[in-house]
Design brief:
With 636 residues, the chain is α+β, with helices and mostly antiparallel strands. Helix content is 22%, strand content 21%.
């Protein structure tokens, strides 16, 4: 019997809840059916008294409960094969974003709220920081940041193979079913792109990388087989190589990318890191309780806790135990922090790329501010407080021990409250005995949230607010940016500027202030580090934030009065263009027809729509699913 059991792998998502509900309904139906079968003769005499009916109902409920518990126990007792669990590439939303039409990734369904940083293709994105933070400890997979160097390969679980070669006793090729049959391990882990907050560096001086904001990181529950287990399954390190084996090299599919000799993406880690189970290095085939999605490496990727995301090879195809580190193109020409005076030309001429001291592996200490948001306004009031909130994470398993805020340019600092999640997750979910005492392992893989309440009068009389974090080795964030040509590991203290509301258009006054972030992710305009006269092409904004392709806007112009007179549909003006929104709304929003969605700041105005409808409208708009009728006349 082929039992499709999802309970074991779906504890962290909506699928788990749906599966439990369906199981309960099935159990109830089964209980009633069984009760009818056991009481068929008695039911014929049910009219003789209500006591028999009560007995029947009690028996039905008892049988339903028994049936549910029995099925649930089977779900945890039987280890299903990945095929029985439906291991196919996981799609994260219901439709293809309009921006992916015509690209090699048109088969992948992506959340349109993600901010695209390199145009329509390849897909490199991060969520709005407020969405990432507000989602809580575990990041929903659909808004997990993505770093792709090219098109996403279409790989079948059944056909994919992973070969382990080099200094092992037995060179072995694994199918995915074979890897998934090995003992599994599951745990939460935060990892960032090494370019998190790169746009700030690009404002100092343009480097080689595109402009990440402060949300190029995420936290997921990863499940897979330990790398050490796989190598041991190959007989372990060869007897003749116990001293010479120093690295484990990884790569993805061949001919995946235009650069490098074989067109693969690859890197390596030290053998000690790979074989020590305290470092939790796994070959992951599940994320947040479900199969990987195409953008996150289906069917297999490596997870190296404490490291930058650039070492965690997706679509993993080849593993080699070696006496030397990887020779892959991307191992040397990516993920390096070179001295500030080294330009790209000098790096190539003097071959700085192959100097071992500048490689990035472990993450550095990092923090940023979620609220106040960019362009948020607060008013001073005696005794009134405002809660400043943010995140922090560290690398190498080091614990974040302190988060601080300064409102006097870093002269003095105030300690914030830290909210930790990792220990509670292990208490509720860990199966291994060594996890009973989480702190005894000395490894901390996940981010924390922090908060501090400040007097509004104090904030409104300051010119900036900045934050920094400390780890258990007492590393902290510097006050100023240390520019490097690749724009990596920028962890300078995160600074918001505070401005008096003197602009006539704001109509605030009374001592109110507004906050300005250093930058906004991708090509979005705004931020105190961004030149005030910077102009962004409409096409670039569309590729990043979605909406309507400027090339596809009908030439017809509407006045605001004409928009309001349209009766056959719910017609709204969104970011200056006119859309038929009947697929989302049944009536015009309470506060009018002019909606502002573009960008990711507090300036969005959804005219009093309820949160569910507002989210749906934004999703449809950003994904290009609302018919555009034309533009609002500049004379409106």
């Amino acid at each position: 019997m082929n039992i499709k059991l999802w309970t074991r792998t779906c504890r962290y998502g909506e699928e788990a809840q749906k599966q439990r509900i369906m199981m309960m309904i099935a159990s109830l139906i089964g209980g009633i059916t069984s009760a009818i079968a056991l009481n068929v003769d008695s039911l014929a005499n049910a009219a003789q008294g209500s006591g028999m009916i009560m007995t029947f109902l009690i028996l039905a409920v008892v049988l339903a409960v028994f049936s549910y518990l029995f099925q649930n126990s089977i779900a945890y007792a039987v280890k299903p094969s990945p095929r029985a669990m439906g291991y196919k590439p996981r799609q994260l939303v219901g439709y293809v974003d309009g921006r992916d039409t015509g690209t090699p990734d048109t088969w992948i369904k992506r959340d349109p709220s993600l901010i695209r940083l390199t145009g329509r293709h390849p897909f490199n994105c991060e969520p709005p920081l407020k969405d990432l933070f507000d989602a809580g400890f575990i990041t929903p997979t659909k808004i997990h940041f993505v770093r792709n160097h090219g098109k996403v390969p279409r790989i079948s679980w059944d056909e994919h193979r992973v070969t382990v070669t080099g200094l092992v006793k037995n060179k072995t090729t694994f199918t995915m079913d074979q890897l998934a049959s090995l003992p599994s391990y599951e745990f939460p882990c935060t990892f960032p792109c090494a370019g998190n907050r790169r746009k700030e560096e690009n404002m100092v001086k343009k480097g080689l990388g595109f402009s990440w904001g402060a949300a190029a990181h995420a936290t997921s529950v990863w499940k897979g087989v330990r790398l050490s287990t796989v190598i041991k399954h190959c007989g372990g390190i060869a007897d003749t190589a116990t001293k010479s084996a120093k690295f484990v090299c990884f790569r993805g599919p061949l001919k995946e990318l235009p650069k490098g000799q074989d067109g693969s993406y690859g890197t390596s880690i030290a053998i000690d890191r790979a074989m020590n189970d305290n470092w939790d290095v796994i070959l992951a085939y599940a994320q947040n309780g479900l199969p990987l999605s195409p953008d996150h490496g289906f069917p297999l990727r490596i997870i190296i806790p404490g490291f930058i995301g650039g070492r965690m090879v997706k679509w993993l195809s080849h593993i080699e135990v070696s006496d030397k580190e990887s020779t892959n193109h991307f191992h040397y020409y990516d993920n390096r922090v070179l001295p500030s005076e080294v330009t790209a030309e000098r790096a190539n001429e003097e071959d700085w790329w192959h100097r071992p001291d500048f490689i990035i592996n472990d993450i550095n200490i990092q923090s940023a501010i979620r609220s106040p948001e960019h362009k948020e306004i607060i008013h001073p009031a005696p005794g009134k407080k405002y809660t400043v909130r943010g995140y922090a994470y560290g690398g190498g398993g080091r614990k974040v021990i302190r988060c601080e805020v300064s409102i006097d340019q870093g002269v003095t600092w105030m300690a914030a409250q830290i909210q930790r999640f990792e220990r509670e997750w292990y208490k509720k979910n860990a199966k291994e005995k060594c996890m009973d005492n989480f702190d005894s392992r000395g490894k901390h893989w996940c981010w924390i949230h922090w908060s501090i309440q400040l007097e509004t009068e104090l904030l409104c009389n300051s010119s900036e607010i900045r934050c920094r974090a400390w780890d258990s080795d007492h590393n902290t964030q510097p006050l100023h940016i240390a520019w490097n040509v690749m724009g990596m590991l920028n962890n300078s203290s995160y600074r918001l500027k505070i401005h008096k509301c003197e602009d006539k258009d704001r109509k605030e006054g009374n001592g109110a202030v507004w906050f300005e972030c250093p930058t906004l992710a991708g090509p979005q305009p705004g931020g105190w580090m961004v030149p005030k006269d910077e102009k962004v092409r409409p096409q670039a904004l569309y590729a990043s934030l979605g909406g309507i392709d400027p090339k596809r806007i009908p030439s017809k112009n509407f006045s605001l009065a004409q928009v309001k007179e349209i009766r056959n549909s719910v017609t709204l003006v969104i970011d200056g263009n006119v859309f038929d929104c009947s697929s989302v709304l049944k009536e015009v929003p309470p506060k009018g027809v002019v909606i502002k969605i573009g960008g990711t700041t507090k300036e969005q105005d959804l005219q009093g729509l309820s949160i569910p409808l507002a989210k749906l409208l934004v999703e449809k708009y950003q994904g290009g699913k609302l018919p555009c009728l034309g533009s609002l006349s500049s004379m409106a």
